[in-house]
Design brief:
The chain has 284 residues and is an alpha/beta fold. The protein has 2 domains: 86 residues, Rossmann fold, CATH 3.40.50; 123 residues, Rossmann fold. 43% of the residues lie in helices and 16% in strands. The protein is built from 10 helices and 11 strands. The strands form 3 sheets. It has a 6-stranded parallel β-sheet, with helices on both faces. It has a 3-stranded parallel β-sheet with strand order 3-2-4, with helices on both faces. Helix 1 packs parallel to helix 10, helix 6 packs parallel to helix 7 and helix 6 crosses helix 10. Bound molecules: NADP nicotinamide-adenine-dinucleotide phosphate. NADP nicotinamide-adenine-dinucleotide phosphate binds next to helix 10.
């Protein structure tokens, strides 16, 4: 069996066009395109790379992007002060604080300081709580939002399926597990203390993985005919690989996200989507 690919790159291209059209419509109505403010503290190389990607994505759909930088030595009061200013700036529809932050600034500081209606990264406790309850308006972190969108757009139904999420981080594993639950899958969450991981993953009709260890899921750990969603992004030598042994998964599964080109390209596009949604909600 050779699995079919869940092509995130192609879907991201399609969604980028859809978002560009909607952003133009927003601009016609309100005279200003939706916009994000990205906050960068220090000069972490991965943050600099990711911010450049975000800027290109926003420019490509005619949405506004602004970068607010603080030095590495900035204190909690500087960061909170900047976030409060952005919270009350009407032209800023969404705020994203690029991780990682310098060690003396805990991420929870940021999560609590962003206005929930501008929290397009879905990290504020109000958004996380509403996602848990599936009630009211809320924002879902872009990576799991992209994973579930890939499944939806490929017509893969989750209702009644047995889904396993390996990884329980607040940015990927936990929200993805909730999103699958909201789609009426029966969900098991696994993590580093789960004994005999393979006995659980082998039962999964939908297997989602966000661990950050290349090849942690081998071919023998995958149920024949499964749908495999790999969120892992690991640099090995000069290659980027996922958490799943993709070549082995292709022999066993029915659907597989490639790495690169699967969940990765969906993340930026879902951030655009969240900012556009924030702008419509704020304008209503
Ligand atoms: P994280 O915060 O480090 O969380 C990793 C999770 O994996 C934790 O819940 C951990 O369990 C669990 N884990 C670690 N070793 C395990 C093992 N041997 N067996 C089972 N579970 C294990 O990582 P993250 O931020 O969720 O990121 C995970 C991966 O996704 C990384 O490769 C990251 O680069 C990638 N990522 C991709 C995107 C994208 O756009 N596609 C976005 C964000 C992240 P404990 O909770 O018990 O420690």
């Amino acid at each position: 069996m050779t699995a079919r690919l869940l092509d995130g790159r192609a879907l991201a291209r399609t969604m980028t066009q859809e978002i560009a059209q909607e952003a133009a419509l927003f601009r016609q109505h309100y005279g200003l395109a939706p916009g994000i403010a990205v906050v960068q503290v220090g000069e972490h190389p991965s943050a600099v790379r990711y911010i450049a990607q975000i800027e290109r994505a926003f420019q490509s759909v005619g949405m506004r992007f602004s970068l607010r930088r603080l030095p590495r030595t900035a204190g909690a009061a500087d960061l909170i002060g900047l976030l409060e200013a952005l919270n009350s700036e009407p032209a800023v529809n969404g705020i994203l604080v690029q991780m990682p932050l310098p060690g003396h600034l805990p991420p929870s500081l940021v999560a609590n300081a962003i206005d929930p209606s501008k929290d397009v990264d879905g990290i504020h406790p109000l958004n996380a709580g509403r996602l848990l309850q599936a009630e009211g308006d809320y924002f879902v972190p872009a990576t799991p939002a992209g994973g579930i969108e890939l499944l939806r757009r490929y017509g893969i139904a989750l209702a009644g399926k047995y889904a396993v999420m390996v990884g329980r981080s607040n940015v990927v594993g936990r929200p993805m597990a909730l999103l699958m639950l909201h789609e009426h899958a029966t969900v098991t969450i696994c993590h580093s203390r789960t004994p005999d991981l393979a006995s659980i993953t082998r039962e999964a009709e939908i297997l989602a993985v966000a661990v950050g260890r290349p090849g942690v899921i081998t071919g023998e750990m995958i149920r024949p005919g499964a749908v495999v969603v790999d969120f892992g992004i690991n640099v090995v030598g000069n290659r980027v690989v996922g958490d799943v042994d993709t070549a082995a998964a292709m022999e066993v599964a029915d659907w597989v996200t490639p790495v690169p080109g699967g969940t990765g390209p969906m993340t930026n596009v879902m951030l655009l989507r969240n900012v556009l949604t924030a702008a419509w909600r704020q304008a209503a």
